[in-house]
């Protein structure tokens, strides 16, 4: 049986054809990829759920589903959603959180990820609204600082979707294949 | 308004450790090696001598020796660990102070950012801190510490004795041609350093944006008007690294000439007029696609023919190949603009040692044999010191 890797074209070829298009940054594509791979190793997550007395895996799953909905509603980039989930996980890996505050954590994480990566991030009012006014502005803003402090402002975390986009480009995968792959990562 | 007054509202107020020739290039903190006590005394003495010239005096004339003492048990991350010495500048979202660390006596730059009541931590601060966290590079200021209080965030940076903006202020009328060349390599090497692919070249006040493989772009208000390329001025949002190449070109001209290349004061239209007056009003031939940009309104712009750059910026024409390099850096059409890597291969740089290309990130270019700054012409007469004396006497 043939190794599947052999069928994937070397990514040098993929970038070469785009070198004339400065908007695709083909010149830096390999550097960026290596940089992300290097950084990814600094953000390896360990299972944390058993240390969270008030939370369980189902609650996290519900939260992430809700975050997906928020991303669709605000028409945010996929990367923003992935980063927000990362922020939630890294926060929970070190800090105890009550279940009443889980949604606050999730929505604040999206706010932070959007501020980091979106051209026009939604405003705080939008986030208060999507939480159905369950939280006050002060709570959201203090959670924002709380997350930043807990993660020591180190929120430039490589997300799976960036790698997936790259692999899809190198493998010349169709948009259908790329979309389907998102279910896996 | 000068570069230096803008430097503080910007991400990286920073960049080049451009020191005077007499100093060793990377060791801008000559004082670091002194014992804290002695250093402290020096600092206080220096402050007294200069107090009447300081922009602001956060200590309000209090007795420094009492308020300023080395303490044990001071930690990073708390405001008490740093002492403000003087205000260096103020920007739209932050104020920068020169300060001193009570932990180790190092000089620092304290960038104080107001947390907005409505929107929380400014996105610029989030991007700046999170991106700088991961960088150690001899041409980029180190972010040492972050202090949080309910109303403010303070970023503690290494103190850079002279940044490019200050250096240019101190040496008006254009820099020494050789120093411009050495300085320009910094601009381009930041770009081509392997570890920093995520960054736009940040030589001017502007947002360093994380750049990722899928090309998505951000606000059209990305860089200060003077350094904003025409495609962005015309409303393009699909800009890329060419944004910085344009800015690099503008700074290059500014270093050579001693005055900004396109010092627009009001709005994008005026800025564009200034560019067209020199580069020629673009047409579909000189810039395919220009007419479909959102803010392209040919009725607003008088048609200008392109002019020879050496006629406008006289000193550019005096240096071999400088004019040619400039014309490629400030090419209006972004797709025709030279990439940073190619710019470094330009003949203009051919007189510099080739080892520059292999320099590791944390190594200063001054370690390469043959790389040094020449004294600035006006420096020989100490014009800056003279000014200082006269202002004290007045």
From TrEMBL, chain B:
<keyword id="KW-0067">ATP-binding</keyword>
<dbReference type="GO" id="GO:0030332">
    <property type="term" value="F:cyclin binding"/>
</dbReference>
<dbReference type="GO" id="GO:0004693">
    <property type="term" value="F:cyclin-dependent protein serine/threonine kinase activity"/>
</dbReference>
<dbReference type="GO" id="GO:0005524">
    <property type="term" value="F:ATP binding"/>
</dbReference>
<dbReference type="Pfam" id="PF00069">
    <property type="entry name" value="Pkinase"/>
</dbReference>
<feature type="domain" description="Protein kinase">
    <location>
        <begin position="82"/>
        <end position="349"/>
    </location>
</feature>
<dbReference type="GO" id="GO:0005634">
    <property type="term" value="C:nucleus"/>
</dbReference>
<keyword id="KW-0723">Serine/threonine-protein kinase</keyword>
<dbReference type="GO" id="GO:0005829">
    <property type="term" value="C:cytosol"/>
</dbReference>
<protein>
    <recommendedName>
        <fullName>cyclin-dependent kinase</fullName>
        <ecNumber>2.7.11.22</ecNumber>
    </recommendedName>
</protein>
<keyword id="KW-0808">Transferase</keyword>
<dbReference type="InterPro" id="IPR050108">
    <property type="entry name" value="CDK"/>
</dbReference>
<feature type="binding site">
    <location>
        <position position="111"/>
    </location>
    <ligand>
        <name>ATP</name>
    </ligand>
</feature>
<dbReference type="InterPro" id="IPR017441">
    <property type="entry name" value="Protein_kinase_ATP_BS"/>
</dbReference>
<keyword id="KW-0418">Kinase</keyword>
<comment type="similarity">
    <text>Belongs to the protein kinase superfamily. CMGC Ser/Thr protein kinase family. CDC2/CDKX subfamily.</text>
</comment>
<dbReference type="InterPro" id="IPR011009">
    <property type="entry name" value="Kinase-like_dom_sf"/>
</dbReference>
<keyword id="KW-0547">Nucleotide-binding</keyword>
<dbReference type="InterPro" id="IPR000719">
    <property type="entry name" value="Prot_kinase_dom"/>
</dbReference>
């Amino acid at each position: 049986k043939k190794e599947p890797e052999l069928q994937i074209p070397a990514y040098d070829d993929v970038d070469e054809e785009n070198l004339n298009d400065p908007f695709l940054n083909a010149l830096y594509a390999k550097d960026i990829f290596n940089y992300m791979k290097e950084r990814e190793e600094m953000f390896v997550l360990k299972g944390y759920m058993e240390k969270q007395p008030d939370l369980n895996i189902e609650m996290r799953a519900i939260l992430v589903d809700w975050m997906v909905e928020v991303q669709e509603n605000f028409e945010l980039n996929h990367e923003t959603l992935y980063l927000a989930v990362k922020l939630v996980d890294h926060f929970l890996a070190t800090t105890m959180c009550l279940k009443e505050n889980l949604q606050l954590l999730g929505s604040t994480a999206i706010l932070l990820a959007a501020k980091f990566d979106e051209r026009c991030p939604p405003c705080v009012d939008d986030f208060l609204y999507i939480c159905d006014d369950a939280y006050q502005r002060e709570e959201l803003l203090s959670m924002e600082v709380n997350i930043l402090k807990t993660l020591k402002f180190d929120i430039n975390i490589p997300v799976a979707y960036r790698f997936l986009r790259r692999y899809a480009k190198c493998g010349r995968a169709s948009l259908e294949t790329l979309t389907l792959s998102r279910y896996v990562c | 308004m000068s570069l230096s007054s803008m430097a503080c509202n910007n991400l990286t107020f920073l960049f080049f450790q451009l020191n005077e020739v007499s100093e060793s290039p990377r060791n801008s903190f000559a004082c670091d090696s002194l014992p804290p006590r002695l250093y402290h005394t020096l600092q206080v003495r220096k402050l007294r001598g200069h107090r009447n010239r300081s922009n602001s005096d956060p200590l309000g004339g209090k007795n420094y020796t009492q308020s300023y003492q080395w303490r044990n048990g001071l930690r990073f991350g708390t405001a008490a660990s740093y002492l403000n010495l003087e205000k260096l500048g103020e920007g739209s979202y932050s104020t920068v102070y020169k300060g001193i660390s009570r932990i180790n006596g190092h000089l620092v730059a304290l960038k104080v950012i107001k947390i907005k009541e409505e929107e929380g931590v400014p996105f610029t601060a989030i991007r700046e801190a999170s991106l700088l966290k991961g960088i150690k590079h001899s041409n980029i200021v180190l972010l040492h510490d972050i202090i949080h209080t309910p109303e403010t965030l303070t970023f503690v940076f290494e103190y850079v004795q002279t940044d490019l903006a200050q250096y240019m202020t101190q040496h008006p009328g254009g820099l020494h041609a050789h120093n411009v060349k050495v300085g320009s390599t910094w601009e381009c090497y930041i770009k081509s350093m392997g570890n920093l692919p995520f960054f736009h070249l940040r030589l001017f006040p502007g947002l360093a944006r994380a750049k990722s493989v899928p090309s998505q772009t951000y606000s059209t208000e990305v860089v200060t008007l003077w350094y904003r390329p025409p495609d962005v001025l015309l409303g393009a949002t699909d800009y890329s690294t060419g944004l910085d190449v344009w800015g690099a070109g503008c700074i290059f001209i500014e270093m050579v000439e001693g005055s900004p290349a396109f010092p627009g004061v009001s709005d994008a239209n005026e800025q564009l007029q200034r560019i067209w007056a020199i580069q020629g009003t673009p047409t579909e031939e000189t810039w395919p696609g220009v007419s479909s940009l959102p803010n392209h309104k040919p009725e607003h712009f008088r048609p200008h023919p392109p002019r020879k750059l050496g006629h406008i910026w006289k000193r550019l024409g005096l240096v071999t190949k400088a004019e040619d390099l400039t014309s490629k850096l400030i090419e209006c059409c972004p797709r025709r603009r030279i990439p940073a890597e190619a710019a470094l291969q330009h003949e203009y740089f051919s007189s510099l040692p080739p080892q520059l290309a292999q320099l590791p990130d944390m190594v200063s270019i001054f370690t390469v044999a043959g790389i040094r700054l020449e004294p600035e012409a006006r420096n020989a007469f100490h014009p800056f010191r003279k000014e200082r004396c006269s202002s004290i006497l007045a």
